[in-house]
Task: structure prediction
Amino acid sequence: MVEISGNLLFIAFILYLIATLFFGGSIKAKKDINKKKETNSWGKIAVCLTIVGFISQLGYFITRWIAAGHAPVSNMFEFTTFFGMALVGAFIVIYFIYRSTLLGLFTMPVAILVIAYASMFPREITPLIPALQSYWLNIHVTTAAIGEAILAISFAAGLIYLVKAIDQTKSNKQTFWLETVMFSLVTVLGFVVITTVFSIVGYEEKFTWVDKHDQEAVMEYTMPAITGPNEGELLTKDGFKPLVEMPAYINAKKLNTVIWSFLGGLVLYGLIRLVIRKRISAALKPLVKNIKLDLVDEISYRSVLIGFPVFTLGALIFAMIWAQIAWSRFWGWDPKEVWALITWLFYAAFMHLRLSRGWHGEKSAWLAVIGFVIIMFNLVAVNLVIAGLHSYAGS
Amino acid sequence: MKDVKCECGHVNPHGTVLCEACGKVLDEQEANKSKLLDMRYEGSARRSQTYNKTVIDKIWNFFSSVKVGVWLIVITLIASILGTIFPQEMYINLPPEVYYEQEHGWVGKLYYQLGFHDLYSSWWYLLLIAMIGISLVICSLDRVVPLYKALKAQRVTRNEGFLKRQRLFSASSNISEHDIEKIKDHLKLKRYHIREENGDLLAEKGRFSRWGPYVNHVGLIIFLIGGMLRFIPGMYVYENLWVKEGETALIPETDGKYYLKNKEFILEHYDKEKDRTFEQAIDRAGDVVKNYQSNVVLYKEKGESLPGEKPDLQKIKEYKVKVNLPLKFEGYSVYQSSYRSELVAMTFSLVKKDSSQSFGDITIDLKNPKKEYNLGNGYSVKIINYFPDFEFDDNGEPITKSRVPNNPAFVFRMISPEKPEGETSFVAIQQTIEPPGENAYKMAFKGIDTQEVSGFTISKDSTLWVIILGGIIFMIGVIQGSYWNHRRIWVQRKNGQIWIAAHTNKNWYGLKRELEFVLADTKLTFPKDQLQGEHEEKEEA
Result:
């Protein structure tokens, strides 16, 4: 069952990749054929592939659920994969409202990156600790992820808006920040590539080191150590000697992974720039030529409107109900709780700015981008760095 | 301040921008502003936009501003981020003055000094939340009352300028009555409420979605009030209770009425032999706990007992308290929140060092150690000193931190036929100190007896109902405001033409698609999106 499940996920991943190519084709083909609203055959194939991929991933989800005996949303791999699936699902829904294949061209790569990122974490089925043994695990986590996924569609739409609206003939703050967003996406790819490469060659090195309680411990790196642990001593023969030693209260291993991902992202980004000879956002510009700005603006805002109640329900209300049952208080200022509140406050501010202060168009698109950054921070940094009661998601 | 009478005859309150009845622009400034009307709050007379003289006006205007509201949200948001950089005080198990510096260096020390270790109950954080609460009330009142009046007073026939300056507008000539009837049928199919006056038509739907924001604000205010109720004595009980296996304890804050007996504490781990699915994960991460459980009995006291008297207990129920399965009674909940193993006894063996021969075992009850343990044949062990929770003080003298046997240490005198006056030995866990001169005997550690102690949380939260009510109202409001739209379509006869104008509070794309349906198979010109017109002009320029 576990094997079938893994294969279904792999099939879904490949289908998403192919679908992205077809979405690209549908944009290219559009201008030649007609100006009618109807989706061309490239687009239709792309949407079909997306739906088949989604069904395949749903198959992964169900088979894994059967194998594990609980909804597969209980660790970093499972949750992030589910988030990717929810993103595709949210796109399919929004697609059938607005029929924009361009949105697919921007959403699918994000979903692919999210799933690829998820696969870098341990993939075994993990048992549930007592606090997680509740049907609220299924309800709370899935609803929160679906809410975040719908909000993420607003990011994709916002990105389209910015790519179209920002003048790429000069460089200024806008072009810089938009390119930073592109670079960040490339860095995620960098992390995936670097992790995969070192895992294929089976790189390993061990250190003994002294932690902040002056206890000696062993730390195992799966990438050459650029930043070594406090008073670390390399145990592995021919291992890479750390360039810098970190103080005990910094997690040298995690920092090392971040540095490698950044370097990987830098190399990839450099290569892309060498090939396309301009900013990524500038290279994407011809693709968005035919879309109307106020349509993408509306898609972006609409996704927030649809996603916000779902997010509130899943990430705050269901979360509070479960916290009351499992931890005896509905709110305890645990970092994950606080970041859910921060996300909620942010989108509340977003909607007030839009409704009352007329922040439409470009400003609104930037806000959608920042919202996604907050969601990603909550998913990645809070689980892996800040931790807290929700740290079991980290592993 | 005088009311304003519009040329249509309707009397509007002072400060009205668009006539409530016909939509004519009353405010001269607004008249010349831009091509399109600002339709927010229907151009109604909001207190905050009208009066600004007294202190009350100024306070009202401050809190009714969305700009202020958004700033409050943003500041709260940033403050909340600060509180997640390092763990808050309640999640650490060392004194804060030690913890932050030890774990996070000078940054941690600064964090503690700035008071961020207990940020969410700091006075300024609570003040921010309170201000958001006030802003919610005033913002909502400032808008909802005039908005309600304006929407109630609107008439079907509208002013020409109002119609022309709607975002969606068209004028068509030579339209047959047949087409008008068709539009009406289409509108009915789309579930519009249709009102007619002098051959003019107003189709409206989803007005209730306009109240969504105010409903959700009411929900939030109730929620915040619920949070405040916690400070009223008796509304909120939150206590820890440790009960040893086999013992019965009074449940705190129940007026001495309820008692809890801990029959047994159970700790289970996943077994990779049995749970094959988890084999790999257990190999990687080590043992994973499957269950924390206390089998308990709940008792209620029968009648009143005098202090010191043994209470007469009546069994209410037996229950298995697990994580996620609290025991509930009379508004109280008993949660399985932690456990510990307590040492109850230690066993040592008197051993001759050179021959490793044992001369008998002694088992020491750590709560109540005996002075002397006689092993027969002239062998005995005396306890000269006992430190239940041993550590060295600053002078290097052994002391005990508490009476709880967390880290027991003993000074033994070992008496044997060879050494009738005895040899002294200091024994702590994994540590033996002997006086100068070598001892012939030693106390060899043989084993421990432990007893499980369940940690319960007792909570009673009478504010929960208010919180739940607030949450439900908030969700209703937010769904009402997000998933429905307030749409209006005006079909009116002006200058022998048919004018169509349409407005929605959001989702213009949806409104246009609906108009396509409504105007299908008629000769009417499809309304032009005048905002898009403006955009395109800009883009081309």
